[in-house]
Amino acid sequence: ANYVPWVITGNLLVISGQLSFGNDGKLAPAHIGKLGGTVSAADGQAAARQCAINVLAQAQAALGDLERITRCVRLGGFINATPDYAALPAIMNGASDLMVAVLGDRGRHTRSTVGVAELPMDCAVEVEAMFEIR
């Protein structure tokens, strides 16, 4: 594909959308499908958490040290959901809570959460991020 996993411009690090691939490079079966359909809220939150882990892994690859992050500016969450599923913010909390757990107050961020009709590989959640860095 014609994109990169991250870009540094000025004092910003922007991370492309990350899916919930595990350490084995695969999507857990519980993280495939739609919220409000085959994916439970707990599994959706776990998928969002895994996406955030992958965001931080990309940040580590870009920066060499997560201590260079001075602030998580924004997280964007895309939730693969049925048209009537309204609990999107609770699913994205899996990513937001992890960011604060890892970065402390530097992890507090703005956020957008959007329900979508489909995501790559039928993944339940995708998360992108923007960080201020030194």
Would you kindly provide a written description of the structure presented here, covering whatever features stand out?
The chain has 134 residues and is an alpha+beta fold. It has two helices and five strands. The chain has helices spanning 41-63, 88-103; strands at 6-9, 12-18, 69-80, 110-116, 125-133. A five-stranded mixed β-sheet has the order 1-2-5-3-4. α1 (41-63) packs parallel to α2 (88-103). The chain is globular, with a radius of gyration of 14 Å. The chain starts with 5 loop residues before the first strand and ends with a strand. The mean pLDDT is 98.
List keywords for this structure.
single chain; 134 residues; alpha+beta; five-stranded mixed β-sheet; 2 helices; 29% strand
Question: Summary?
Answer:
By secondary structure, the chain is α+β, with helices and mostly antiparallel strands. It is built from 2 helices and 5 strands. Strand 3, helix 2 and strand 4 form a beta-alpha-beta unit.
- Please count the helical segments: 2
Summarize the biggest pleated sheet: 5 strands, mixed
| Distance between the ends | 29 Å
Shape category:
globular
Helical content, roughly? 25-40%
How many strand units?
A: 5
SSE pattern: EEHEHEE
β-strand amount: 25-35%
Report the radius of gyration as a whole number of Å: 14 Å
Structural class: alpha+beta
Poorly predicted ranges (pLDDT <50, ≥5 residues)? none
Biggest sheet, strands in spatial order? 1-2-5-3-4
Summed over residues and divided by their number, the pLDDT gives a mean of 98
